[in-house]
Amino acid sequence: MDTEQTQSVLRSRLAAVEARLQAACQRAGRPRSDITLIAVTKTIPAAIAALLPDLGVLELGENRPQALWEKAAAIPHGHWHLIGHLQRNKIERTLPLTTLIHSVDSVRLLEALEKEGTRQQRTVRILLEVNVSREANKHGFAPEEIAAVVQSARTLRQVVVSGLMTMAAYAEDPEAARPTFRELRQIRERFSPLLEPPHHFRELSMGMTNDFEVAVEEGATLVRIGTALFAGLDEGTS
Ligand SMILES: *Cc1c(COP(=O)(O)O)cnc(C)c1O
């Protein structure tokens, strides 16, 4: 596929996702402007991801820090979201490149981010990842840990807690994800009153290709979409 063909595939995939997003917003009685689409570029090369800003997609996500570094170097005007596990030895390089870290999954990581944010004199916007579905192979705080994390957020100066993130267990039927998304929203409602500014829980990062419409119905403000945009575009380009 040449660049023009790739562009036209991307344009039609984006239009299809946009139509689904708008339909979900309508069902939920929410304005479309409440929800930010993050294009998850982990399966495509930087050369293809680089076409996205011209198509109006500036919010870009990667799950591996090293891949984010590479693609952010290739697409520096993108707004990069880290959506996967961050090892502490990768914080220093990651902070200058990211607009939001969705995947903070331990108090130790929170403390290390505060320390490096202070050193770099940089505000670090983060979400707390919650393992709502309680899968053993998943990162994230257990729901019952959130109360303690909210307490420890009081001491943060450089890190700004801005919401919650979760991944539902994969299932054919997107309805199976609904209880997970609903529980994340309930965690927000329960603990928001305990957070002091600048910290807040306004953002809910939830919903992927298979379940983003349900996530929007349950209050998602950030949806992370890869496959629906990029399936089949990973080959024949390198
Ligand atoms: C890959 C990934 C996504 C996108 O998933 P798709 O099903 O391809 O849309 C979203 N969130 C996270 C954390 C991911 O790793």
Give the radius of gyration.
17 Å
Strand order of the largest sheet: 7-6-5-4-3-2-1-8
Helix/strand-derived category reads: alpha/beta
Approximately how much helix is present in the residues? Answer: 25-40%
CA distance, first residue to last residue: 11 Å
Oligomer state equals single chain
Low-confidence stretches: none
The share of residues in extended strands comes to 15-25%
Number of strands: 8
The helix count comes to 9
Q: Any ligands, ions or cofactors bound here, and which? A: pyridoxal-5'-phosphate
Give the H and E element order. Answer: HEHEHEHEHEHEHEHEH
Mean of pLDDT: 96
Shape: globular
What does the main sheet amount to?
8 strands, parallel
What does this structure look like?
The chain is 37% helix and 17% strand. It is α/β, with parallel strands linked by helices. Strands 7-6-5-4-3-2-1-8 form an eight-stranded parallel β-sheet. The protein is globular and about 50 Å long. It binds pyridoxal-5'-phosphate (PLP).
What are the salient characteristics of this protein?
238 residues; alpha/beta; eight-stranded parallel beta sheet; binds pyridoxal-5'-phosphate
SSE layout:
Layout: H1 3-28, E1 36-40, H2 46-49, E2 59-62, H3 65-74, E3 79-82, H4 91-94, E4 98-104, H5 107-120, E5 124-129, H6 146-152, E6 159-165, H7 178-191, E7 203-205, H8 212-217, E8 222-225, H9 227-230
The protein binds pyridoxal-5'-phosphate.
Pyridoxal-5'-phosphate binds at residues 40, 42, 63, 83-84, 167, 208-210, 224-228.
